[in-house]
Amino acid sequence: IVIHTAPPNLIKDYIYELPYNSSVINIGLARNKKNQKISLDMQKLMFKRIQLLSSFAVPSLYFDKAVNLISDRIIEPDIFIDNIIPLSAIENFIGPKTKKKYLKTIVDLSLGNKKE
User: Fold this and answer.
1) pLDDT tens for residues 106-116?
2) How far apart are CA 55 and CA 59, in angstroms?
3) In degrees rounded to 5, what are phi and psi of residue 78?
4) pTM for this one?
């Protein structure tokens, strides 16, 4: 199960790399309407039994405050983020080879993509 909190248009960047019988739960939105739209190949999703679900229970009224609390280390991110990986490692990370179960893993799109 992947909880997607980024703008929805980023789902297309990794969804086909997920293992068989995966679920993506989208709770992310974008200010730019262009980033709300995605185009997916339903045949690929069906044959891999990938489910795409969405939820919007409560708007992010306190998102800025939450980011500030974490940035200022008033709330330590280590209590709920236990792993950060680059996008290039997602297939190996969530595949059957993964032995350790993580509570919350962040996929950092900038890791491993920087030109030195």
Assistant:
1) 777 776 544 33
2) 10
3) -60, -20
4) 0.52
